[in-house]
Design goal:
Elements (H helix, E strand, L loop, with lengths): L2 H18 L6 H13 L5 E3 H10 L4 H13 L3 E6 L2 E6 L1 H14 L11 E6 L5 H9 L3 E4 L2 E4 L10 H4 L2 E6 L14 H24 L5 H19 L16 H25 L8 H5 L8
Antiparallel strand pairs: 1-3, 2-3, 4-6, 4-7, 5-6
Helix pairs in contact: 1-8, 2-9, 3-9, 8-9, 8-10, 9-10
Length: about 300
């Protein structure tokens, strides 16, 4: 291993230390990231040993992984099947649905276009927590306990029909001073999270530029950690159109950095998945379109 590769490995170790230094580690959440990012495109099933190999490279003990898998199975996020002495796991319907909703936002090439349309949803009382969460997952901003706003028109067949059925829904395309929307959500918290991501991952991005591709398992572990860190922020971000974002918004700089790192890790991490025995990708065009403007 050359000096530059040593530095890249050291930068990865610093990121792993950061992961463990943020307080109690949610191993189950990291596992969901691994499934959604790498395993789902290859059919959605993986042996426990593969999951443990990636988590071990991230400094997580096998016992903690087994505990996380048991919790995910009990909560109906994954299904477990024994085959001889081996255990295999796959995301069940709940887990697939959760990552399917998130995929578009995680791997988007940039902020959405905007045609000036709005949707406002008003409830007579505070909606249930799961209904409010579903609205925010679909790009609504919570302006008050019972008022939600989305800067786009929702199609009639939108999956939110049931949630919106008990709410007053107003659709339109006119608003005075629409840029004031940026004052109605906690943008500073999210902006700071993007800046921290940039600060933490830039050293690794720099070392990747200077070195040969990382070892296959390092590439898989780094890719999992990268998407885990990225999705923790981007799924809190309502994904506003560029015209409505605050000035000097760091989100797109962070997206460009994440896309650049991801692109350098994909080849070797996919090779590791091949060597680990996972089947080939089922939707290659969709995978190739991640962080790109290409529409599969």
């Amino acid at each position: 291993m050359d000096v530059s590769s040593d530095r890249a490995a050291a930068a990865l170790e610093a990121l792993i230390a950061r992961l463990h230094g943020r307080g109690r580690l949610r191993v189950w959440s990291l596992v969901i990231t691994l499934f959604g990012d790498a395993i789902l495109p290859r059919g959605g099933e993986a042996p426990l040993a593969l999951i443990q190999d990636v988590m071990t490279r991230l400094g997580i003990e096998a016992g903690a992984v087994r505990t996380a898998m048991s919790r995910l199975a009990a909560d109906h996020w994954v299904e477990r099947e024994r085959r001889g002495r081996n255990s295999y796991f796959r995301l069940d319907a709940r887990g697939r649905h959760a990552f399917d909703l998130a995929t578009r936002r995680i791997y988007a090439a940039g902020p959405p276009a905007w045609d000036g349309s709005w949707t406002v949803a008003i409830a007579t009382a505070s909606p249930a927590a799961n209904a409010a969460a579903e609205l925010t997952e679909n790009g609504f901003l919570k302006l008050a306990d019972n008022i939600f706003l989305c800067p786009r028109a929702l199609p009639e067949q939108n999956g939110l029909r049931e949630v919106l059925s008990d709410m007053l829904v107003i659709r339109g395309s006119s608003a005075e001073h629409p840029e004031q929307l940026r004052n109605l959500w906690p943008s500073q918290d999210i902006a700071n999270a993007y800046r921290d991501l940039l600060k933490s991952w830039m050293p690794y991005a720099f070392e990747l530029e200077q070195s040969s591709p990382p070892p296959a398992l390092d590439a898989m572990a780094a890719r999992t950690l990268l998407i885990h860190d990225w999705r923790r922020i981007v799924l809190r971000d309502p994904g506003l159109p560029a015209a409505l974002l605050p000035r000097n918004w760091p989100g797109e700089e962070a997206r460009a950095m994440v896309a650049g790192i991801y692109g350098k890790l994909v080849a070797n991490s996919e090779r590791w998945l091949d060597e680990a025995g996972l089947p080939a990708q089922t939707k290659r065009a969709a995978f190739a379109a991640r962080f790109c403007d290409i529409k599969p």
